[in-house]
Amino acid sequence: MVGSCYLTLPQLNSHFLLPVTLFMLKLSLDETLHLSLQESYCLPVLTYAVAALSLSVRQENELNACWNSVYKKLFGFHKWESVKYCIYGLNRLDLHSIIRLRRAVFTGILCRQLARYCVIFSGVLSLILRLTMTFYLHLGCIAMW
């Protein structure tokens, strides 16, 4: 089915939270190293194709809550405590900023590809025009132009 997402947010949350929980249980690492592992493995799972999707504010907030749960579990925050300043203090981006960054990169790639195809298409059009002119010149029908 084109244009639909097969994973709902609760399914995505379960796919995301399982590795987070496994990392938390089995590894006793430095917090920043552990956070780097989470960013390398779990963040791509959470943000896969987010640049091409049109998420509602609620959906984006749910994804942000999933990502904030990593900080809460890792640094021992309670559920009601905000991790916003912890994220900024570690020179990291919150998920809303990560999504905006990925969308900007995705849009830039699309614009570069579109510009490239426009250059190729304009080259093909000028070639067709030259071939048509040459054809009419050989027929002696240049007066038609």
List keywords for this structure.
145 residues; mainly alpha; 5 helices; rod-shaped; disordered N terminus
Account of the 3D structure:
The protein is about 70% helix and about 0% strand. It contains five helices and no strands. It has helices spanning about 10-25, 30-45, 55-75, 85-90, 95-140. The longest helix has about 45 residues, at about 95-140. Mean pLDDT is about 75; it is low at about 1-5.
The end-to-end distance, rounded to whole angstroms, is 49 Å
Q: Structural class, from secondary structure content?
A: mainly alpha
- Residue-averaged pLDDT: 76
* Rg over CA atoms: 26 Å
Low-confidence stretches: 1-7
So what's the overall shape?
rod-shaped
Q: Determine the fraction of residues in helical runs and give it as a percent range.
A: over 70%
**Main sheet attributes: strand count, strand direction, barrel closure:** none
Q: Secondary-structure map with pairings?
A:
Layout: H1 9-26, H2 31-46, H3 57-75, H4 84-89, H5 95-139
Helix pairs in contact: 1-2, 1-3, 2-3
Q: How is this structure best summarized?
A:
With 145 residues, the protein is mainly alpha-helical. 72% of the residues lie in helices and 0% in strands. The chain is rod-shaped and about 85 Å long.
